[in-house]
Amino acid sequence: MTESVTLVKDREPPRYMQLAGELRRKVLSGNFAAEFPTEAELCAQYNVSRFTVREALRRLQAEGLIARRRGSGTTVQPAAARGNALHQPISNVGELLQYALGSRIAYQSLGRVDLPGLAVSHLGETKAAEQWIGFSGLRRVDGDPRPLAMTEVFFAPRLEAVCAALDLSSGTLFAQLDDLAGINVGKVTQDIQAIPASTEVARLLGLRRGNPVLRVIRCYHDLEGRLFEISVSHHPGDRFVYSMHIDVED
C-alpha cells in the first residue's frame, strides 16, 4: 500500500505549530524529563495565549509524546510507550525542517547519476534520460548509534552549479537553495510505502534482508511548480513513525 501526501508551503506557520515544534524538540531531547511546565508557565515563557499553548499540547498528545490528565497536569510519555521510535509530524513544509533539526546527516556527493527507476516515475514529461546531481547519507539521532534513515537526494541538472556550493554537513539540502539560488519550495509531494529491505538497504541500516522499512519518496517543486529535487529515504520499521494531523473543519 502506498500513501501519497501533498504539502504546500505556508507563508507563516501558525504560532501554535511553531510552539509545538519547539516543545517537540525539547521532549525528544529529554529537557522535560523531570517535570513538564504548566500551561501558565508556557504562556509566560513564550508570550502566547492559553489557546496557543493548548493547541500545541494537543498536537504533542496526538503524537503520543505527552499525556494530559485533568488534575494531574502534563507528563512526558517514556520512550518505551512510543515504541522507541522517532515521531515525524507531516502537516506542512515547516515540519519537515523540524525533523531535520531533530536529527543529523552528512551527505557525500555522487556526482551526475542516472535516477533510480522509482524516481524516474515521478518526472512526468521531464526528460528522464538526463542525469541528475546525486547525494547520499545516513541520518542519525544524537545518542543513538543506529541510523534513522538512508537517504538519497537528486537535484535537477540545471542546478549543477548550485549543488557545488551546498554544505553537505548542514542536514537539509533543499533549505539552502533559497540563499544560494533564490529557489523557494512551493509544494512537496510524498509517496510512503512499507516494503522489505533490500540487501544494500539492510546492510546500511543494520537490518536483516527483508526486514520491514518505510520508503518515502519526496518530490520538491518551486513556486512555479517546477520539479527541482527528488529524495528517496528508507526508514527502519521500528525506529520511525509518521504522524498526520487532520483538523476537522466546521
From TrEMBL:
The keyword Transcription regulation applies. It comes from the Bacteria. Keywords: DNA-binding, Transcription, Transcription regulation. Transmembrane segments: none annotated. Residues 13-79 form the HTH gntR-type domain. PROSITE patterns: HTH_GNTR. GO terms for molecular function: DNA binding; DNA-binding transcription factor activity. GO terms for biological process: negative regulation of DNA-templated transcription. This is DNA-binding GntR family transcriptional regulator.
